[in-house]
Amino acid sequence: MSEAQSVTDGSQTRTAADLTAFQQNILAILSEEPMYGLAIKRELESYYGSEVNHGRLYPNLDDLVEEGLVEKSELDKRTNQYELTEAGHDAVLAQLEWVLDRFVTDEARADEVRALLGE
User: What pTM was computed for the model?
Assistant: First the structure.
C-alpha cells in the first residue's frame, strides 16, 4: 500500500499516513502476534520508557478496531485480545515503505537496512 492508498472503514477512508505515531506503534507491536491490552501496554511502555495510561491506550485500540486495522476478540469475560487485520498489515507495510523510501538514499544506507534485517 503506497502513501496514496487508503484504509476504508465503511463511510470513512483514511490513509495509513493519517494514523498517529502511537497508533502506528500499536500496529507494529501487533505485527508480531495477537496480544491482550496489558501486554500491548507493557510493550509501549518499554518503547517509550514511561507509563502509558489506560485512557490513552484503549481509545486508540478502539479507533483501530473501528477502522478495521485491528480485530478485537474476547479471551475471557475480563480480557480482550487484539490482532492485526490484513488492512492493519497493509498499513504497517505502507509506513515502512514510506520511511525506507526516504531513508535509503544510497548504497551505504541500503547496507544499514540489510544489516538490520540480518541479510
Answer: 0.83
